[in-house]
Predict the structure.
Amino acid sequence: MGTYYLLFDSGCSKCSKLAHRIEELSNDMLTAKSLRDPEVQATLATARPTWKWEPMLMHQLADGSVRVYSGNQMRLRFFVILGLRRSVAIASLLNAANVPVFDIRAKRRQFLKLSLGVAVSLGLPKVALAKVAGRIDQPGLPDDLLKREGVVGYSVDKHHSNSAQISFTHSDADKSGEIRVVHDSSQTQVQLFRKGSLIMSFVRIFRGSETQTAEGDELRFQHSNGKEAALMASAKGWEPSGSTDQGFLEENEADLRLMAALHAVVVQLPSLQTAVANPSSRDSLQRDPQTNACPCVGPWVRSDAFYGSARSIACMAATNNLHAYKCSDPWCWGCCNLWFDCDCVCAVGDYLCTCARSGQGCGAPCT
């Protein structure tokens, strides 16, 4: 894998603090280095002789070779290296800081452009594409999902690394209450309480990754009245498992939708304040002006399957996996063509979903 260096201007004290904070948030995946370091400048002179005084990501491989990323390529590499959660946390930090990273004596000051093209609702990057077909489905803010389910207000009462508690007010006072979420390396449990009493809970047990879906993953539901249901992920989607009450999901759909929407808030707690303050964007991805004449003749490929508390969240994760890992080739970053929509299987309405998506890469050199 090698070592990644975040290159910044140490001439600005605030920028230095910010860069080192990003280094901390990256969990040792990035090391901050100053562009004023003679060793850095010597490396850049060899790896990218035409380098400019701008934010850059330098990748030093195990064999000693060096790759340098800037602009859109750097933003995409951030997402690939750090993943969703850390990208969200860093984007929130940058949005909140709003300080210049490059404060040099030039005609124009260079400001920090490491927002990763983040859609603040989920922290996912815009990708530089040779040719864009359609839009990526971006989920609404947590508030949008909650309003759809009748929630008129909520507060985060407790928030730890592996648990959270949210109190909420519903338009129907009898439906107000709180949810409690507990997460560990193998499962996530969501519980619904009203007037201090447990009403219902569901547990997602993941055999592989927390974000991705693998055959054998389970969703288990239990109501305080003793009724239960279970679903297991298969090649066909979520299928009944064990002694499942066939009418359970239909009877409890309203509460399950509510729990899943509130869980979406918990998932995004690191960027919650930013998300509430900034409306999400549904802008389509912008083509890279340097690769306008790229062809679109590569093979069709499919993303991994991703799980999300809401369909739009799972679809966004699958689409970005497709861009970052499946379509990118030596000539283009991301897909030049996307299938119309994600292929999703949801347990309850548009909630508790597994999604995948197909796309096509450039497949040939750009001119």
